[in-house]
From TrEMBL:
The keyword Transmembrane helix applies. This is Uncharacterized protein. Keywords: Membrane, Transmembrane, Transmembrane helix. The chain crosses the membrane at residues 6-25, 32-53, 73-91, 98-116, 128-146, 153-173, 179-200.
């Protein structure tokens, strides 16, 4: 239970610190509150998904289910729901300039902070591999020489290629401590890149 709480604490701290650092580095402090709201949505969806996917066990063993950490299925569900809510808000309000690029940078930087903290605590080789992956992605995502839509799509493609390439070195893929299936990398990249291109074409997305 202590290890579970430690991982949750590292996850929340990494997301919060990542949001603050991205706002500081990109001079987009006005988007910080929106980003924190989206992080809160994700964490709520993650917790709710864990309960929904274990509803049968929840009735019989509520304490065990509540104390059990969320699994990959809950992570997939929370990511999907958060993405749907985010895209709907952008499409409806048309008042979130650059929020997707902000979130992309937050995601990479938070992942780097998470892997760094996990590596310092546990010194696991997998954390070191992910540390280099997300460190490189964080540096690439802050480039300003590319148009925002191209930068985001290229960052996603590099993430997918880099993540899948790690399978040549280690047997599993992880993100924020969750085991991730290779199909998630592919489907997420295709869906996210398609949404970015669509919103950019419609003039909804800009920086």
């Amino acid at each position: 239970m202590t290890a579970q709480m430690t991982t949750i604490g590292i996850l929340v701290s990494s997301l919060g610190a990542g949001a603050w650092l991205v706002a500081l580095l990109s001079d987009k402090k006005g988007q910080l509150s929106h980003a924190i709201s989206i992080i809160a949505d994700f964490l709520i969806f993650l917790w709710a998904s864990k309960l929904a996917l274990n509803v049968h066990h929840l009735i019989r063993e509520p304490v065990a289910v509540l104390s059990r950490p969320a699994d990959s299925a809950a992570f997939y569900t929370a990511s999907l729901l958060t993405g749907i809510i985010l895209v709907f808000r952008i499409w409806r309000d048309r008042s979130d300039p650059g929020i997707l690029l902000f979130l992309l940078r937050l995601w990479f930087l938070s992942s780097f902070l998470f892997e760094f903290t996990e590596f310092v605590i546990g010194s696991h080789p997998a954390n070191l591999i992910n540390l280099f992956l997300y460190g490189g992605l964080s540096l690439f995502s802050v480039r300003k020489a590319l148009p925002p839509d191209r930068l985001m799509v290229m960052s996603l493609l590099l993430w997918a290629a880099g993540g899948l390439s790690t399978l040549l070195i280690q047997p599993v893929l992880t993100m924020f401590g969750f085991l991730i299936s290779p199909w998630f990398f592919l489907i997420f990249t295709v869906m996210a890149a398609s949404v970015i291109k669509l919103l950019w074409k419609e003039g909804t997305l800009w920086t």
